[in-house]
Amino acid sequence: MYYVWFDDTPRKEASDKLDEAIRGYELRFSERPSHVLVNSADTLVRTDVVVQVSATVQPNTFWLSRHA
Questions:
Q1: 57 and 22 in contact (C-beta within 8 Å)?
Q2: N or C: which end of the chain has fewer CB within 10 A?
């Protein structure tokens, strides 16, 4: 199951958008996500979550999940 976050604010950095998505995930599920799928336009380097590029994810969209 994925928690999907969309933010197309033009002047906001992708890392800030992801930080907000992580906070939203934590509020909803009371735990931190371990993985996020992103579009190649939003590729990020993070140490706190595994970031994977997926062609099915639209730009400015983050699919967050918790993997064991």
A1: no
A2: C
